Amino acid sequence: MSRASRRRPYSEQRPQDLGGGVWSVPVPIPGNPLGYTLVYAVESPQGPVLVDAGWNHPDAWEALSGGLAALGFDVGAVKGVVVTHFHPDHAGLAGQVRERSGAWVAMHEADAALVRLMHDHPADDQRSFQAEMLRRAGADPGEVRQAVSRPAPPARPDRELRDGDLVDLPGRKLRAVHTPGHTPGHICLHLEDADRLFTGDHVLPDITPHIGIYPYDRDDVDPLGDFLDSLDRVGELGSLDALPAHEWIFPDVAARAAEIRHHHEEKLVRLRALLARRPHPQTIWEVAAMMTWNRPWADLSPMLRGMAAGEAAAHLRALEARGEVRRVPGVDLVRFQALDS
């Protein structure tokens, strides 16, 4: 069966017993084309531990609590929530689960630091930061005004994880595998006693996660390089069954990780070729407009253009780190050009 034919709308999703003391609950993401987050419950003598929690919305809460009830669990009995990364479709309901059950909330220390930063800085400061980032990338003032957004930050975690840490899950071995790229603190979770890997957004069966760099013109990080290295690391775990946060469960995570790496390597080759054909250095916004997305650049909303620019910036930074492009500092804007082969 082809990948596309396996995609089903949220209305057709149901909570499932996956065997081996693992269950899945689809939780809707209102107004988002992803449709839903797959929240997983892992059995524990002290109550289930959730992998992710879903979007903070009344419909999502009803789906999560009702889905757990349909599987025989009371949300008030949840022992803990391990968040694969801080994005709102994964961490959004973690605070509400904690309020209802007293559960702990855990995430990687790098994402925990970002959550603290979001809580400690007023929304107006974050919007100003975004606007300046967009302006420096080359967006026009109208796009800047429409692209700026600031979702509510998720709950602060109680516990912070590092690579290799075992999650507090008596009777099971659930180990954190640091897989940065989609976020600095993204983790997969290896259920070692069952040869399963909860992949979050790192490895999905059909789509690839957003890999961006923020602010766009940073030169001290390489998210795409980190992501590609993380794909290799996941591949080294072998042909485990993958339990992703979106789409569907699939076998052989190593094979899919290799496919995603190949996709990005091809994208890097195409991007360098595009830059090589331009006689003058290009802004990040101009580069994003040249690249291929799932719809034409002209049809992308300002918010989606902002995300595309973040991804273009990550690819430019990866090429820069490999010595294939260089940035050309300007008085106000940063531009990039290809280096001679």
UniProtKB/TrEMBL annotation:
<keyword id="KW-0378">Hydrolase</keyword>
<feature type="region of interest" description="Disordered">
    <location>
        <begin position="140"/>
        <end position="165"/>
    </location>
</feature>
<feature type="compositionally biased region" description="Basic and acidic residues">
    <location>
        <begin position="156"/>
        <end position="165"/>
    </location>
</feature>
<dbReference type="InterPro" id="IPR001279">
    <property type="entry name" value="Metallo-B-lactamas"/>
</dbReference>
<dbReference type="GO" id="GO:0016787">
    <property type="term" value="F:hydrolase activity"/>
</dbReference>
<feature type="region of interest" description="Disordered">
    <location>
        <begin position="1"/>
        <end position="23"/>
    </location>
</feature>
<dbReference type="Pfam" id="PF00753">
    <property type="entry name" value="Lactamase_B"/>
</dbReference>
<dbReference type="InterPro" id="IPR036388">
    <property type="entry name" value="WH-like_DNA-bd_sf"/>
</dbReference>
<dbReference type="InterPro" id="IPR036866">
    <property type="entry name" value="RibonucZ/Hydroxyglut_hydro"/>
</dbReference>
<protein>
    <submittedName>
        <fullName>MBL fold metallo-hydrolase</fullName>
    </submittedName>
</protein>
<dbReference type="InterPro" id="IPR050855">
    <property type="entry name" value="NDM-1-like"/>
</dbReference>
